[in-house]
Amino acid sequence: MAQLTDDCFAFSGPLLPLDDMERLIGERVAPVAETEQVPLRGACGRVTATDIKAPVDLPPFDNSAVDGYAVRHADLRANGDSTLTIAGRLTAGARTGVALDPGQAIRIFTGAAMPAGADTVFMQEDVTVDGDRVIVPKGLKRGANRRLAGEDVAAGQVALPAGTVLEPQHIALAAALGIPKIEVRRRLRVAIFSTGDEVVEPGSPRGGAAIYDANRYLLSELLERLGAQVTDLGILRDDPDALAGALQAAAAGHDLVVTSGGVSTGEADHVRSAVERIGSLVFWRVAIKPGRPVAMGVIRGAGGSAAFVGLPGNPVAVFVTFVRVVKPLLRRLSGARPQTLVPLPVRAAFAYRKKKDRREYVRVALRRAGDGELEAVKHPQDGAGILTSLTETDGLLEFAEEVTAIEPGARVGFLSYAALIG
Ligand code: AMP
Ligand code: MG
User: Fold this and answer.
1) Tell me: the pLDDT tens digits for 291-313?
2) Which residue ranges have their beta carbon within 6 Å of ligand 1?
3) Residues above pLDDT 70, as percent of the chain
């Protein structure tokens, strides 16, 4: 089920810039084709397969935005109070078709249909009632407190474009339009592996030189949050044949296979060569820190093929390359539109030096400085294996390729973890 074409995708340069990588994904990766109709409940996180047009106006009819009195603006005096006769009462859900004659007002409540002839509503707090008459002040604009049919969405307009990742507010909009089911693309099937002779499962005995597996847990949570169906295929030894066999088997039933570890240039790093045996690599180094060795390619399995991403081993590098490499690929495969995350401008509370021509991500906590500005404080430990540098911070600063030095006080761009993993 490969959606990734491996022809003319190969990248031979030393380090692939992130923008080029995203462009390649957009050009070369096709979304899964299968779609299904799902009920609104449970549709959150799914990706719309088609433009969804409004079958009705929203709101469906002109109605009052407040509790008060509906009037004809033409009846009102410009220079003083106006006195009108209360001719009826309309609550939300009450019949429509009530009409207002000149000189009349109608007691109306929020959500009730505007009576014919009325165009303006006074809030009840602003009027004086005297028996069957209401005295209203001057100065209210025509159309005040009236909600027009279709002012939110007009019938026939696209309410939810194709490629929308459904969030609670999108579900609410569909419901308000009376749409009970949505056509979405099928969920992605993603297989994950960890690699490394030193890596063992939490809860199992750990030898002196072993570490517990953090990456499979990180990846499966990140992937599920993005709506994927995850198959956890465990930990693979640093053995070229075992790697190739397991990857090939995984390719058959999945759209994407993600591994961590073993993609560097060390003698025990066999993931790249395994992929080259059973498929092809598209690139394996991206101009990003942390995380430079990231491999992307295609694996051909019996009865199908899958896209492949090999992430670095260090958990912080896994996190950063996931949000910057796997997530765009996953969104593309799932049919979602590319996401543009707008970094929030904050003030750097530290100095920083970086190499040109690579995108860098720095883990920071936010604090409110004495002058009220938001300040980003760098975590004291910046090793790519330091998991607490992720748990004790709020997000990442993103430093562009051309930047080489940041001085304290500089304006920098902050991306919250919530935004990055959502
Ligand atoms: P590698 O790229 O395989 O050389 O791994 C780089 C570093 O990440 C090494 O210190 C590994 O022990 C560590 N590492 C690899 N896989 C995992 C994992 N699943 N969980 C935690 N650390 C890992
Ligand atoms: Mg390794």
Assistant:
1) 989 999 999 988 788 999 999 99
2) 194, 196, 198-199, 211, 213-215, 260-262, 264, 266, 312-315, 385
3) 97
Please give the single-letter amino acid code of residue 348. A
Counting ligand 1 atoms within 8 A of each CB, the residue from 199, 218, 318, 322 with the most, and so the one to mutate, is: 199
Q: In this model, does residue 11 exceed pLDDT 60?
A: no
Residue 75 phi, psi dihedral angles, 5° rounding = -80, -15
| Max Cα distance, the chain (Å) | 93
Tokens describing residue 62: 């002109």
Task: Decide which of 409 and 5 is more confident.
Answer: 409
pLDDT tier, 97 (very low <50, low <70, confident <90, very high otherwise): confident
For residue 85, list its beta bridge partners. 104, 133
Q: If you average pLDDT over every residue of the chain, what do you get?
A: 95
CA 237 to chain centre: 35
Q: What is the torsion angle, in degrees rounded to the nearest 10, for the CA atoms of residue 38, residue 40, residue 43 and residue 44?
A: 170
Is pLDDT at 12 greater than 70 in this prediction?
Answer: no
Cβ 145 vs Cβ 17: under 8 Å:
no
